Amino acid sequence: MSTETHAGAHGEAIGQTSGNGASASEERLTVTDSRTGATYELPITDGTVRAMDLRQIKVDESDFGLMAYDPAYTNTASCRSSITYIDGDAGILQHRGYSIEQLCEHSTYLEVAYLLIHDELPTEAQLQEWVHEITIHTFVHENVKDFMQGFRYDANPMGMLVASVGALSTFYPDANQIHDEGIRAIQIIRLLAKMPTLAAFAFRHNMGQPYVYPDNDLDYAGNFLGMMYKMTELKYEPDPRLERALDVLFILHADHEQNASTSAVRAVGSTQVDPYSAVAAGVAALYGPLHGGANEQALRMLRRIESVENIPGFLEGVKAGNERLMGFGHRVYKNYDPRARIIREHLDAVFEVRGKSPLLEIATELEKRALDDDYFTSRKLYPNVDFYSGLIYEALGLPVAMFPVMFAIGRTSGWIAQWLEMVKDSEQKIARPRQIYTGERDRDYVPVAQRG
Ligand code: ACO
């Protein structure tokens, strides 16, 4: 076997200065292929090697070249993004550099949506214009309403949301002109404006109640509460404490970088389909219990524990491996999920309006005991966003089927921001992973009568 050294596919960068100012020659991975004895130098940029640089590693000329195998993309960066920064070990979440704590304290959901989508916080005039535009686009075409009324009486609201947001593409056929900045801008406004309307219609449908039209005198969260809960009163007046808690929940769910639903939006959007269809893919991904359903599981767990006295026995069962403590642990956060702490702070305000849930005492005691227990601390298991969000939603009178719908409303701003970033990114193209083929080859077709 010959021993030779190959430059990376971006080998011309070796020895030159890379974009971040460091010499690329200082940052490279040297790989020796034991099959051939050949050695390769792959540039390392931003802590990554390019998967395409592996392709030059071949046994012979007819070889396709080496690929990376990464089921579920657990160690693959699929894009460059400047939207959301997470440090899971330190429990840090920032959007465009602003901490989630500061945004939740000082900002509103629509302002955070502007920040995510337009890179910077708006000026006062920009914010006014943005809020005004979203407010005047909250109505949906009457045919959308008719379409939703066609669902079965007990249709899952998340299924209705997937279908109805996708259906919006048929009402705005020019939305597929995704490279036209002006056309893009109006679809973004429409998506943010109409998502709560579709979500509330789905809820009312489920409750067997007439749909309530948007009230443009109300703020984003207040208008949503009105469309959900308005009955015979002439004017719905949301309680400001509930309105604020809901707005903060929307902020907390606005973006979380390349999670499953965002990756779905990017993958589907990479085909250059319109943004309604791409966002429908995101909602579909969120419909899955592993993504949008953990808070429902956490709430069911609290109900099952029933009383504080049962907590030690329950925790023993968790430690014995019989079940998981739902709402604890996170793939990325190995510290307290900052979103859980913020939700906890808003619980009291919601309970002040709605009356205290007996489950709060169980949740508080459960958290305290788990954080005092070496089993959980040694595994870095802390409360995540789902530990308390179900309690707030329940206090707001929402059935569990609506929990992921609430998540979807907030996440819409993140999906749009990520979609927009992808559309403008010249490095992106249609998403098309590779596979390791494990099936049969070169078989002769056997007529059905001759098959054993
Ligand atoms: N309760 C008890 N033990 C747990 C829990 C939990 N909630 N989570 C992890 N562990 C234990 C595992 O058994 C494992 O222990 P071991 O080393 O003795 O085998 C160890 O901690 C590591 O667990 P992993 O499953 O490898 O951790 P991973 O990062 O893959 O899992 C996950 C993250 C899926 C979120 C997990 O913590 C879990 O199932 N949590 C409960 C469900 C939940 O709350 N999901 C919501 C996440 S937030 C969101 O999606 C918005």
Can you give keywords for this protein?
452 residues; Citrate Synthase, domain 1; 2 domains; 3-stranded mixed beta sheet; 3-stranded antiparallel beta sheet; 18 helices; 6 strands; globular; binds acetyl coenzyme *A
Describe the fold and architecture.
With 452 residues, the protein is mainly alpha-helical. The chain folds into two domains: 2-69, no CATH class; 97-425, Orthogonal Bundle (Citrate Synthase, domain 1). 48% of the residues lie in helices and 5% in strands. The strands form two sheets. Strands 1-3-2 form a three-stranded mixed β-sheet, with no helix packed on it. The protein has a three-stranded antiparallel β-sheet with strand order 4-5-6. Strand 2 (28-32) and strand 3 form a beta hairpin. The longest helix is centred in the middle third of the chain and has 27 residues, at 181-207. The radius of gyration is 25 Å and the shape is globular. The structure holds acetyl coenzyme *A. The site of acetyl coenzyme *A (ACO) has 15 residues, from loops. Acetyl coenzyme *A binds next to loops.
SSE layout:
Layout: E1 5-7, E2 28-32, E3 39-43, E4 84-87, E5 92-95, E6 98-99, H1 100-106, H2 109-118, H3 124-135, H4 142-149, H5 157-171, H6 181-207, H7 220-229, H8 240-252, H9 260-269, H10 275-287, H11 289-292, H12 294-305, H13 311-319, H14 338-354, H15 358-371, H16 374-378, H17 386-395, H18 403-424
Parallel strand pairs: 1-3
Antiparallel strand pairs: 2-3, 4-5, 5-6
Helix pairs in contact: 2-8, 2-18, 3-6, 5-6, 5-10, 6-7, 6-18, 7-8, 8-14, 8-18, 9-10, 9-18, 10-18, 12-17, 14-17
